[in-house]
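Why run this: before we spend reagent on co-expression, it is cheaper to look at a predicted model of the complex and decide which construct boundaries make sense. The entries below are exactly what would go into the expression plan.
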Amino acid sequence: MNWPVMRAVIAKDVIAVRRSKAVVIPMLAVPAILMIVLPLVIGLAARSSGHSDISRILGNVPGDIARPIRELPQKEQLVVLVNGYLLAPLFLIVPLMVSAVLAADAFAGEKERKTLESLLHLPIAARDLFYAKLLTAFIPAMVVSWVGFVCFCVVSNTVAWPVLHRIFVPTPLWLAMILWVAPAVATLGLAVMVRVSARARTSQEANQLGGAVILPLIFLAVGQSSGLLLVPLPIALAIGGVIWIVALVLVQGGAKRFTRDQLAASV
Amino acid sequence: MPPAIETHDLTRSFPSGLALDGLTIDVPPGEVLALLGPNGAGKTTTVRLLNGILTPDRGHARVLGLDPTTHGDDLRRRTGVLTEHAGLDERLTARENLTLTGRMRGLDRAWVERRTTDLLERFGMADRADLPVQGTSTGQRKRLALARSLLHDPEVLFLDEPTSGLDPAATRDVIDLIGSLATEHGRTIVLATHFLGEAGRLADRMAVLHRGRLHAFGRPADIAAELWEGLDAHLDVGTPVDAATADALRSATGVSMVVPSPSGAVVRVAERAVVPHLVQLLVERGLAVYGASAHAPTLEDVYFAVEARIAATEGRPATPPPLEVLSTSVPEGVAS
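The model came back. Tokens follow.
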């Protein structure tokens, strides 16, 4: 792999994306709402109703979540339940969503802007181009997710401090999810979206086609992520490992099938 | 010296049909090849195959001694391409478009910065260097794209419609630049264009493509020699010649055809030496001769003659060429 050339491709795309309000605003606004505003509002609401009896709510959540929360003092229960468990899916949704938006633009956007052919005429190996486009979506997605996660932790701990008087997020399981599982899920979505983008004519078409794949992944992430917080750490890491293997197999397959000819023929 | 570009039976099809069918050509180093033909003729497909971004279904090509299919990246380091759409990222500045291209080409960053500044000045873009491309005129974009294609000082340049969308002054500048690249700097240039005027000024060789097939290839004069015998002489006597004078000209030695023109007549002569005799004939008939010149058919004449031949074989009306070409240059029995 030619890293300097790949870095140049990534730099070009990142500079261009940074200047595109149509991409930047949703890319930052949605994570900001999900990872800062939502935990702030819900956390404040949970804190103010901290003395209410949530046993009925706990009756509706899985026993593995309810049990450690029932052991907490009543005033801590709601805020820990909401910000410590129920918002967990956001950390899989955000990287998946951001990377999917950027990946949809990877090749389809270049076609739309009529810049793809010039790119193909450069001496960049097809595989380097594929990986560079993948990283162009992956790096900002993870930066947004991790910065968002830090913000989430600050907001959640600040909101809960008057009640808890201790830092309650991140736990080791949270860290495993954000640092290990979330990148794997983002890569899985990317592997699909970059291939879709290479075939689509516009990024809108890529988003529509990719949505059919990404949406089920989002639902799966939402359904399973809270559950990840209940399993022992080695099992969470192992689950992340399995997702990584599937994602990397898909990425490798995509890189092997990716050819200049395929793209040039669609320009 | 081996050809800079050679192809043999180069063929490529898409789901929509055959785009290029058995192209065999060769271009010596330092020459300009004009790829001519209507939309869908296969010009852009040829450029893409020669630069290795498409792979042929059949046949092969060598550019600078390299096979574009197997040594595409090595080749693309030595070629430059101006695509039909300038292909600039509108969100980047003019300078960024060039410097980032240089970096994507793997060139030294400091060298690219210096070269970019030089090119922006040379192409009259220095004052817009740090402004986004969005908002620049078509002409400025074309100049910028041309500057980008020259960034790494390529040995072979592929130019797809380099003057489309340019105003007359910018067109002249670009044509002059392309001409100097070939004549002074020895670059080999493939010029895919609809504009026969610019092709005529620049091209050493021409290739006429139609629906993916090569219908004529070579130096315009050589193709003309196959199409016509002799030269067209323009005789200016101020008014169209009368029938008697036309007959007298027709019966002169070395004359094969006479067509009255608004200012006199256009006469097909076997060689330039016939022209003084015709002038003498006109003077003897009491006519004032304001001018007489013989010129070989232009690239434009040749192109329309080839087009007419294609139309005749396909049984359709020929593309109407300019009036003068229609009246004087289409060989007998060719135009329908």
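Residues 3-264 of chain A form one domain. DSSP finds 13 helices and no strands in chain A. Bring this page to Monday's planning discussion.
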